[in-house]
Structure formats: C-alpha cells, structure tokens
Write a structure and sequence with these properties.
CATH architecture: Alpha-Beta Complex
CATH superfamily: Cysteine proteinases
CATH topology: Cathepsin B, Chain A
Shape: globular
Largest sheet: 11 strands, mixed
Mean pLDDT: 88
Number of domains: 1
Amino acid sequence: MKSFIILLLISLVYSTSLNNPEDILRSKFIIFQRRYGKSYSTQHEFDHRFQIFKENLIKAEEHQRLNPLATFGITKFSDLTSDEFKSKYLTFDRESYRLFNSNNGMTIKQEINKPEPPPPQPQCTPNGLNYDWSSCGVITVVKDSGQCGCCWAECAAEMVESYYALLGYPLTPLSVSQIIDCDTQGEDEGCNGGFPTGAYQYIQKAGGLESEASYPYSSEAGESGNCNYNPKLLVADISEVFTLSTEEELYVQLSTPSQQGGGPVGACVDSSSWQTYTGGVLTSCGQDVDNCVQVTGYANYGKTGAYWIVRNIWGSDWGENGYIWLSIGNNTCGIDEYLQYVSVFSLNGTIPAY
C-alpha cells in the first residue's frame, strides 16, 4: 500500500510538472537534443540554447500564421539565432549578385572544339500540370553541406550533374569541394560565400568538374580545403549558361521535353524564413536573396495551390525530405531574381546509360 501511495505521488508530481509550460518546453528541447545529437558543454550554454529554442518556436508560430498551407516548428536549426543560421547556411556573395543584376544577367559561352555528337537523351516528357525531373533519373540525392556556406557551388554542381545526365550519361554526383577549394577568382570565397555565375566561370576555366567519388566533399565543418583537383579525372564541362527572368520562363524550361533542351533550373532565393520550415507550401516569404537551390519541378500548375518543387542542401532530415514547396505566381522568396540552366559536354568518354 505504501509503495502504491509513493508511485501515485510521483505520478501526480510528474503530471503537474508537465502542465507547467516551461517544463513542457524544456521536455521538447531535450527531445530535440536527442533527435539531432546536440550537446552543450556547460549549463550556461544549455540555458542559452534553450532560450533561443523558445524564441524560435515563437517565430515558427508567426510564420505559421502567414503561411496557412505550410507547417513550421522544431528543426535541426532550432537552437541557432537568426544571425547564426544566416552565417552558417545562407552565406553567398551579394556583390556578385549585384553585378549580375547590373548586367541584366549574363550568358556565359565557351568556345570549344566540338565533341562527338551527344548520345541519345533519356525520354523525359513533362506533364503540363505536374512534373518533377527527379522522376526522370537526372537529379542526384539531397546533399547536406554542413556548416559551409557553399550553396552557390552546390547549385552550380547540381546543374552540371543534371544536364550531364540529360545527355544520356550515368547520373554522376560531381565535386562541390573542387569548386569550394579551387575557385578563388573574383568574389567567390569557398565556405564564406560566392555566386553561381562565378562557379560556372571557374568550371570552364578549370576545364570541368571531377566526380564526387574522386574529389569528395570535405567542408562539413565550415572550412575550405586545399585545391587538389586532377585534370585527368574531369567528368563534364560547361559550354553555355542560360538565364531566365520570370516564373513563366521557369515553367517553360521545366515543362519542355528533354530532347528539346528542357530540364531543372538553378535559382537563388530568400531562405531566411526556412529555419523553422517543416513541410507544405510556402506562400509568404522575404525577397532578400541569400541562398541558391535547384528547382526540380512543379505541381498543380495553373491551378489553385500550385507550387514549385525546390531541392535544398540541408540534408533529407529537413523540410519535405530535403525539399521545400514554394507557391507559384507570387515570386515567392524572390524565385525569379536569378534563374539559370546550362548546356554541358562529357570529358571522360563514359559509355552512355541510354
């Protein structure tokens, strides 16, 4: 009987504790730590991160009110301040972006010796209403760049990957670290930021990109490495970069069959509100471009609730399995500010996959 009373008292205390809002939040914070492998060296750091965690939950509620078709809440970034989040995950070079806009976009062409005629392209025929280029096998898996501000380099590499595969060659992850480590021209600064235009220019100057297998990613901790690419191992190079300027042009490129030059599109957008995004369609967003991504498709085009399918580089444990959905028609997150795609050619004589 005595044991029963003790257990009952413990249960009552525990129940009362969980009715305390602060204790509920603390419990959520501990679960967050366990889920994402977070640890803090001192009680002071724990308390500091817990306070930030609570503030981010308030921000999530604010974003939720503005975006009824999306969901916001606890993510692996919930213990970071807005400034920390931006410095680690949204870094890219604004001066290069300014120059891009002042030039009204630039088309980069490379005079090359014509390679052998490309192999037959995969038959990818988009549907006018719904289509995702990942269904065609030309989109590599979602990557996680860690704490390196290399979205500009990731975006460029992803575009070369996709258009290389669209030639009919095997889908091959290409080396982002080659760009991060070796592109020191202009305003590009590795993990401290850059812009896709500079990355494309570097790729052409270097003569192409190696595969990720031969030059693995090594900047998870936020530091660039030493440049050590091997010209003999280059896989693909860029012959031309094309720019788009409206959502209508974005749709045309995404909805054009592969054999007519269609494919995914690179974009730079405002991702400041994505820190607490957990899923659904984002309808309200800023316009201060700070992150580069790949637009892989669209859903319900021309219908209510239409959205772009956007691949990010924060791992598959964020958002919609590493993706985010942006509403179509409102320049959501400034999606039409910088849009580009490429034409490429093979350097290694790989036997086509198709």
